[in-house]
Amino acid sequence: MGAEVADLKGNLKKFFGFDSFKGMQEEVISTIMKGEDCFVIMPTGAGKSLCYQLPALISSGTAIIISPLIALMKNQVDAIRGFGDSDAVAHFLNSSLTKTQTEKVKEDVTSGKTKMLYVAPETLKKDETIDFLRSVEVSFVAVDEAHCISEWGHDFRPEYRRIKQIVKEIDDVPMVALTATATPKVQMDIQKSLNMVDARVFKSSFNRDNLYYEVMPKGSKAQTMKDLISFVNKRKGKSGIIYCLSRKKTEDVADILRANGVNALAYHAGLDAKTRAGNQDKFLMEDADVICATIAFGMGIDKPDVRFVIHYDVPKSLEGYYQETGRAGRDGLDGDCLLFYNPKDTEKLEKFLKDKPVAEREIGTQLISEMAFFAESSQCRRQSLLHYFGETFNADKCNKMCDNCRHPRESEDATNQLVMALKTIEHTAGKVGLKHIVQILSGIASPEVKAYKHDQYEFFGKGKEQGEVYWKTLIRYGQINNLIVKNIELYGLLSISEEGLAYIAKPAKVSIALDREFDPVSDADFDKIQLEAVFDKELYDQLKELQKVVAKEMGLPPYVIFQEPSLEDMAFKYPMSMEEMENITGVGKNKAKKFGQAFIDLITQYVEDNNIERPDDLVLKSVVNKSARKIHIIQNIDKKVPLEDIAKGQGMDYQELLDELEAIVFSGTQVDLMYYVDEIIDEDGRDEIYDYYKSENTGSIDAAVDEFGGEFTHEEMKIFQIQFMSDVAN
After folding, report:
1. Which helix (H) or strand (E) is 215 found in, with range?
2. Of 574 and 5, which is predicted with more confidence?
């Protein structure tokens, strides 16, 4: 290959149409052409793929590109074919091909037409693949997405660890490993695994100065979806990716976005291959604006104009976060990266690790804690992120391209406290981690602190009044500014650096802002709409008055018209059309049609009179709930199945069934329980109870039981009320 080093720029122009190389590309390509191993660490969008594509096109033989994802291979092969004379220039070999297609690929490689052959590690390890590759000329081997090799990487693949051994069985050819994300620890892990410790290392800056990083609290599901829709609607028509941790959530989020007018699709491994590929192609071809995906999506997908990346769930590691956010703004134009953060999400991730081997659990916990640090930090996010990847960055150069620099929190002098923290870390001699140091300074005599006799240390409890969050913030500041070293090999033990010792000897003034404290939102809270503190109380009072007027006109008790949660929701969302009214909590189509117009008129007038700016995105439209349970209940009532049997069939107790029935009827759906009511009471008695419900204003079941002297049970009175509501309100 050595003779072909000449005129790389000419070949760059010939094959790719570019006049000049970006960054380190030319040096990397020259190294490969000289037959030397090299390790390339370049951020997403820096032109990593071209580093192996150009030498493959101008070298004799076929380059083997080991790639982790079938979707990635297809995308890259399609892209390369656009630059070649025929489709034979690039192929992939994986489990998705038929026998005939596989034979065609092998034929093109053998005849010398194919310059790049993409293979999955699982395919590469097969004896038949090794035998075939031995029979052809291999120019070099490229390992793309090489972080998959490392157990510290975010997508551990055991097959990757055998790559060097397999390649040696094929031919002794040069090897290039490429990744868009590698901490110093991951870098060393990759080099050891590929036996490339002596390889030339090319490492670009990880700074993506066109990306804006922001973290928002993740509240209730309703509030988070409103924030999400608001964010997306401000970027209407722009391409974006929303990452979720579960397959179900990708579909739920896509459904809700579509219900709110956003052209969104889901992407995850559980979809059938045709749907998955179709959704990906629609996104790439701009037939869909937003893709809601699990982390499998986008690894190496070359769509340059993704304008935003949202993490609906906290990622498992900063490597994953960096790589996923790196899919925004690959064209060099601005990209927004939004992370919704809830401390409960990190607890959930840690629970997933509980059944893993100890070493893997320790590593996973470290990665999650780094992610939590990043989310909670009050310091420059760009500085925090780059520090994690072993790069020093001056926060002044962020140019307000993160929320903490754009909206800084109030800071206070922490010079003396920093000296105290550094001296404590020096005293503990690299034997303990962050939690232990915080306990010493906060005066918490835990068993570990006592075991080391650190409860007798001079600074024990000296920082009690500042609190634990303060000391975590300060130690994090020390890490980012290279005063404190975190030994990742030893699961996060802290020691003092040379710079830290110099700081103790000659302290300079330091001011810090406390890290943010996020309220944990549990799964139980997550599906509740929390409106109590935010609805318009003046409008609510007017709606209550209107409720009474409408009720009087129709000869019905007020609670039959709309329930209180519905009025609160109206005073929060300001529905000004029938469609918006149908999406109010506990209303539905029938109820909106029957009672809604007067309320819509009042709200419209109120909004105009008070000059209220009513953002459209606040009117969160929920997806119609077609839960199998509700459908099953209604169908069985239509068949006149006894209620006890319906409850048993759904694994519910009787009271749960009545609550479900009440919710169905109160939101506007009619049911016919007369087959059940007729067994309990005659027509005259039923009319008497209906007359009572018409005159009673609160809808209290206890009051109704008392009124009829305990003649009917609580459950029976509730069934009468449900049927009454169905008859008069829906």
Report:
1. strand 211-217
2. 574
